[in-house]
Amino acid sequence: MTEPKQPATAGPDSPSSISMNEKSDTYAAFSKEDFLSPDFRSDHINIIVREGIILGAGAQAILLQVANAGVGAGVNEHSNFAYRVQDRLRTTMTFVYCMSFGTPQEKKTIVDMITAVHKNVTGTLNEGRDKGKTYSALDPKLQLWVAATLYATGLPIYERVFGKITNEDLHEKIYREYSILACALQVPPEMWPRTRKDFWAYWDHEIATIEVTQHARDIAKDLLYLRQAPWHIRMLTPAVRLCTAEWLPERIRAEYGVKRHPRRYRMLERLVKATYPALPLSVRSYPVKLYMNDMRERLANKRAVIGKDA
Predict the structure, then answer these.
(1) Is there a contact between 264 and 70 (Cβ–Cβ < 8 Å)?
(2) Which among 209, 214, 207, 234 is positioned nearest to 60, based on CA atoms?
(3) Is the pLDDT of residue 210 over 70?
(4) Residue limits of the ER-bound oxygenase mpaB/mpaB'/Rubber oxygenase catalytic domain (predicted)?
(5) For labelling, which of 160, 173, 182, 271 has a CA lying 20 to 30 Å from the CA of 152?
(6) DSSP-derived 3-state class of residue 136
(7) Coil, helix or strand for 130?
């Protein structure tokens, strides 16, 4: 695949060389028709998602996602999470990277595969304050929440490493293009919060009201220790726990029972900030190449990309 392009001037506030999709709509979000157009460009979200460092926020994003009772039940009851953590990471990042870097046909193929899998993820909540209510992975509210966690975790880790994005125009374009991670599925454009202020109001409300159930705690135990994963993956779990504990909102962290270690975290953060930005973009963006090549090989060989058979 083509390597992700580097802006002409390095740094978080340098959009001058980036082609912009200037289409102005009633809503902040792009529709599925916009997104699948051959002319659609996602250069601004790509600034964030091409960076391999965002994988470091993966556990944080997953724990926030499954803190939504419907998402947590769907993951815990319809997947073998403890034994397939790597597969979940691969399928999630394949979706994100394909939506950002894929061709229109690749995007449509992956979206159709995900929708087919989601049709079978339904059930009735068996715990928590919403016990007895039904859930479905096709529910736009659940999909909106999952996409929101990707924006709310990916952008901050980028800014921790590269510095704050102070260019408001760039900020808005990044935010708008993140909507494709929701509206590519069943979320209608009008559901994506219109402004970043609206988004953070939505976010704060969800963080204040979501309920960490036992389903979510079971997933957290599997995710943060990865006892069934290969040894080379388990080696990363102490750093993952360190960062996840630091980045989770206080109430959510407390409900998961995850402990912070601020001094160790600061040491790790200083190390990453001193080394990661100096790496060539081809190295920093290697996960994009890895997962996109894997996706294309699977598609070419008519192998499953998403789902239990993947």
Answers:
(1) no
(2) 207
(3) yes
(4) 49-274
(5) 271
(6) strand
(7) coil
Give the distance from CA 53 to its chain's centroid.
Answer: 12
Please count the other Cβ atoms lying within 10 Å of the Cβ belonging to residue 217: 18
Separation CA 244–CA 61 (nearest Å): 9
Q: 97 versus 307: which is more confidently predicted?
A: 97
Q: What amino acid is encoded at 160 in this protein?
A: R
Three-state secondary-structure class, residue 148: helix
Average pLDDT, the chain: 89
Q: Determine contact, residues 98/106, Cβ cutoff 8 Å.
A: yes
Q: Where are the domains of the chain?
A: 32-295
Determine the Cα–Cα distance for residues 308 and 304; give it in Å rounded to an integer: 9
CB burial readout 233-263, b (16+ within 10 A) else e: eeeebeebbbbbbbbbbeebbebbebebeee
Q: Give the chain's end-to-end CA distance (angstroms, integer).
A: 21
Tokens 């058979």 locate to 309
Identify the CA nearest to 30 among candidates 179, 173, 144, 149: 179
Tokens of 153: 């975790």
CA atoms within 13 A on the CB side of 150: 24
